[in-house]
Request: fold
Amino acid sequence: MAWVVVVPEWLPLPEIDDLPDPGSRGVTLELSNGTVEVILLQKGGCLFAYRNRCPHTGVNLEWQPDRFLDFTDRYIQCATHGALFRIEDGYCLRGPCAGQHLNSIPLRMESGRVFVMI
Ligand code: FES
Reply:
């Protein structure tokens, strides 16, 4: 049996100076073996990142480009069936995937740039 070792790496995100608080942005990262869609969120001065993939069916979550939050800007809301997720930890509070989580992505700031671990 052959083993494939995948080494995670820190990838820079585009500039986020204009990201509202609270607010969200969708980012598509190009990898050597395809693309990864990421949600970047800001709330209370803190940043959070998740894979853009609903745990219910695997579809993207946004209503419109960069629009992931519900009308109160308190929760991430899936556009397909309306599941609500906490911004802080991606936990699904209500909807067909209640009790599940969005896939969290580690992030860090360096010299004013945001990097995510993919
Ligand atoms: S696809 Fe997201 S709640 Fe059904």
Observations:
- The chain has one domain: 18-117.
- The chain has a mean pLDDT of 93.
- Residues 54, 56-57, 59, 78, 80-81, 83, 95-97 surround FE2/S2 (inorganic) cluster (CB under 6 Å).
